[in-house]
Amino acid sequence: MFKRSIIFAFIALSLGGCGLATTRPKLEMRLAQTAFLAAKEAKSQTLAPGLFRKAEFYYLKAKSSYKRKYFNKAKQYAVISQKFSEKAEFISRRKAALEVTTIPQ
Question: Is 42 exposed, middle or buried (0-12, 13-18, 19+ CB in 10 A)?
């Protein structure tokens, strides 16, 4: 009986310790935030609304997962948000540049 309780305690501590081994995705969250703000500054809400909405959706999911301490999910969502934000910013800046360089006839 004593042996079973020791084994059970060891298994419980081993499984509980897995959550402590996960590191916080601080860098990924910061990169996602920076990319999202850059896309916002480039007026992606109007020039690339679909990509911007996806970036915002995944950024908010990353923040929510981080607050709930689901760090693996937060990291995944942050990376996805960063990719959508960068695409949205690129398209916005390209559209803005094309509008400036076109000469009216």
Answer: buried
29-74 confidence digits (pLDDT tens) = 999 999 999 999 999 999 999 999 999 999 999 999 999 999 999 9
Specify the 3-state DSSP secondary structure of 20.
Answer: helix
The structural domains of the chain, with segments of one domain joined by +, span 24-101
pTM listed for this prediction: 0.76
For residues 9 and 103, give the distance between their C-alpha atoms in angstroms, rounded to a whole number.
75
Which residue in 29, 39, 19, 83 sits closest to 60, CA to CA? 29
Contact (Cβ atoms closer than 8 angstroms) between residue 97 and residue 78: no
